[in-house]
């Protein structure tokens, strides 16, 4: 059982309790945690800390099926054109899930789930796929030999292979032909204390379907929200303990 699933309890009681904001009624808070709380900044050379575990909560009830702002923001942030063919780079994509018994459909963004027990890391023969101490799963392009075992192991189809030569890539996001890549949770932004580009773009639309933060911090919005609503991890049956949880699935 994951740490975020233990001791689940209501964030707001029946009478309403002020936790970092003004509660005017049960379930209604006049406070925006995402804008009020700052992410920690890593000093140059400072290693990632296991005291932190980055994660994301996605509310599918707030995710518009026709909205692709998170996808566009990812492409812009990491310096490539938006995907037009199945082989184009796409670290985040919008998908729709349909419940066969009821016909109910929900839209959600799909990307690397940054598992605590990542199968991509387990199968990598060169240790190119690795997990940082703070839970972010990355690919070392200097070690990657393009075998694509990690792509086959990932149950979320969240990794892309670079087929063509790469030019003019962002220095924060080094890329290379013949290597595998996937969502990094905008690690270059996180280390500067800035939210991932997709989360920032979603907030600007007014949907706020994505909440990002430290799953280990009892004062973070994501920690509190996960304990106040029913959430689901994708393929929880695999025991991967993903860093992502979903509302409304």
Domain count: the total is: 1
Q: Give the strand content.
A: 15-25%
Estimate the global geometry from the Cα principal axes. globular
- Give the % helix: 10-25%
Q: Between the first and last Cα atoms, what is the distance in angstroms?
A: 20 Å
CATH second-level architecture? 2-Layer Sandwich
Q: Structural class from helices and strands?
A: alpha+beta
Q: Report the strand count.
A: 11
Instruction: Tell me the series of helices and strands, N- to C-terminal.
Output: EEHEHEEHEEHEEHHEHE
Taking all Cα atoms into account, the compactness measure Rg is: 18 Å
Explain this structure.
The structure is a single chain. The protein has 249 residues and is of the alpha+beta class. The chain has a single domain (50-247), classed as Alpha-Beta Plaits, CATH 3.30.70.20. The protein is 17% helix and 18% strand. The protein has a three-stranded mixed sheet. Strand 4 and strand 5 (105-110) form a beta hairpin. Helix 2 packs antiparallel against helix 6. The longest helix is centred in the N-terminal third of the chain and has 10 residues, at 69-78. It starts with 21 loop residues before the first strand and ends with a strand. Mean pLDDT is 83; it is low at 1-36.
What does the secondary structure layout of this molecule look like, with pairings?
Blueprint: E1 22-25, E2 28-30, H1 33-36, E3 54-59, H2 69-78, E4 93-98, E5 105-110, H3 119-123, E6 129-131, E7 137-139, H4 149-153, E8 159-161, E9 180-182, H5 187-190, H6 197-205, E10 210-214, H7 221-226, E11 244-247
Parallel strand pairs: 3-11
Antiparallel strand pairs: 1-2, 3-10, 4-5, 6-7, 8-9
Helix pairs in contact: 2-6
């Amino acid at each position: 059982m994951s740490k975020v699933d233990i001791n689940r309890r209501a964030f707001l009681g029946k009478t309403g309790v002020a936790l970092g904001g003004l509660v005017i009624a049960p379930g209604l808070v006049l406070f925006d945690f995402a804008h009020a709380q700052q992410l920690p900044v890593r000093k140059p050379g400072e290693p990632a800390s296991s005291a932190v575990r980055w994660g994301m909560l996605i509310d599918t009830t707030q995710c518009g099926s026709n909205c692709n702002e998170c996808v566009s923001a990812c492409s812009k942030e990491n310096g490539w054109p938006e995907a037009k063919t199945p082989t184009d780079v796409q670290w985040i994509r919008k998908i729709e899930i349909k419940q066969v018994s009821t016909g109910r459909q929900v839209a959600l963004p799909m990307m690397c789930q940054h598992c605590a027990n990542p199968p991509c890391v387990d199968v990598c023969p060169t240790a190119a796929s690795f997990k940082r101490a703070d839970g972010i799963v990355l690919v070392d392009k200097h070690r990657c030999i393009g075998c694509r075992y990690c792509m086959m192991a990932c149950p979320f189809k969240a990794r892309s292979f670079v087929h063509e030569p790469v030019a003019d890539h962002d220095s924060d996001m080094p890329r290379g032909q013949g290597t595998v890549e996937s969502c990094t949770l905008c690690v270059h932004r996180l280390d500067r204390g800035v939210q991932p580009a997709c989360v920032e773009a979603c907030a600007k639309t007014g949907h706020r379907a994505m909440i990002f933060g430290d799953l280990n911090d009892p004062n973070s919005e994501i920690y509190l929200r996960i304990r106040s609503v029913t959430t689901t991890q994708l393929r929880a049956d695999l025991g991967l303990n993903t860093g992502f949880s979903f509302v409304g699935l």
